[in-house]
Amino acid sequence: MSNNQDNLETKLSDAKAVAGGMLSKNKHISASGTSAVEVAKTGSIKDLILWLLAAIVLIGATLVNQYLPGYWQPANDVWVRIGIIVALVVFALICLALTHQGRAFKILLRDAGVELRRVTWPGKDETFQYTWQVIVVIGIVGFFIWLLDNFFNWFVGIFIG
């Protein structure tokens, strides 16, 4: 019991220290030193050109299947069309990754990975216990809804006949 108490007190003091550190900061700064929001808000002509290029390429990818076989003989093969569509989508994603917003998305993914490593996952016993609690609550709520449904069917049946 004492060991569990010491462990809980340690976890509580760690949580308070982390919360105190979070409250003292005004902004969330990522591991790279700049926030994803700051990076995403910046823009340039290069970003505009890359966004337009990506949009044009994605629109072209949607039209490849319908129009390209009429202009280019090798495009009659379905695998050639699939390859062209995949290449166009990959090119558009690369264009988007080169924008400031794409860089911000990469920062966001990196920060999400850091946060996922901090998660304390429940053990087997906790998972089993919570699963049974959820099943019991679902059964109780389902029974209550079934009772309400029968009551309202009976009540409406009185008026309808």
UniProtKB/TrEMBL annotation:
Q: Which GO terms describe its cellular component?
A: plasma membrane
Subcellular location, in the record's words? Answer: Membrane
Question: What organism is listed for this UniProt entry?
Answer: Psychrobacter pacificensis
Q: Which GO terms describe its molecular function?
A: protein transmembrane transporter activity
What family does the database annotate?
Belongs to the SecE/SEC61-gamma family.
Q: Per its UniProt record, what InterPro entries does this chain match?
A: SecE_bac, SecE_sf, Translocase_SecE/Sec61-g
> Which keywords fit this entry according to its UniProt record?
Cell membrane, Membrane, Protein transport, Translocation, Transmembrane, Transmembrane helix, Transport
Mind listing the GO biological process terms from this record?
A: intracellular protein transmembrane transport; protein secretion; protein targeting; protein transport by the Sec complex
UniProt-recorded name of the protein: Protein translocase subunit SecE
**Taxonomic superkingdom:** Bacteria
Complex and partners: Component of the Sec protein translocase complex. Heterotrimer consisting of SecY, SecE and SecG subunits. The heterotrimers can form oligomers, although 1 heterotrimer is thought to be able to translocate proteins. Interacts with the ribosome. Interacts with SecDF, and other proteins may be involved. Interacts with SecA.
- Transmembrane stretches, start-end: 48-67, 79-99, 130-148
The question of whether Nucleotidyltransferase is a record keyword is answered with: no
Q: What does this protein do?
A: Essential subunit of the Sec protein translocation channel SecYEG. Clamps together the 2 halves of SecY. May contact the channel plug during translocation.
